[in-house]
Amino acid sequence: MRGFAPRLPWSRRASSWFALDVGSSAVKIAEVGEGGGVLRTGSLPVPPGAVENGFVRRPDVVGDAVRGFAGPARGRPRRAVVSVPGRGVIMKRLRIAPGPVEKLDEAIEFEAMDAIPEDLDAVNLDYHLLGASEDGGLEVLLIAARKTLVEGYITLLDAAGLVPAVVDVDYFALRAGVGAPGEQSPDALVHVGARSTTLHVPAGEPPGLTNELPWGGEQSTESLAERLRVPRDEAEALKRGDPPPEVAGLLESWCDRFAADVGRGLGLLGGLGDGIGPRRIVLSGGGALLPGLGPSLARVLDADVRVYRPPFAGEGLSSPEARRQGPAFAVVAGLAARSPSE
Question: What are the pLDDT digits (tens) for 178-188?
Answer without folding.
Answer: 865 555 678 89
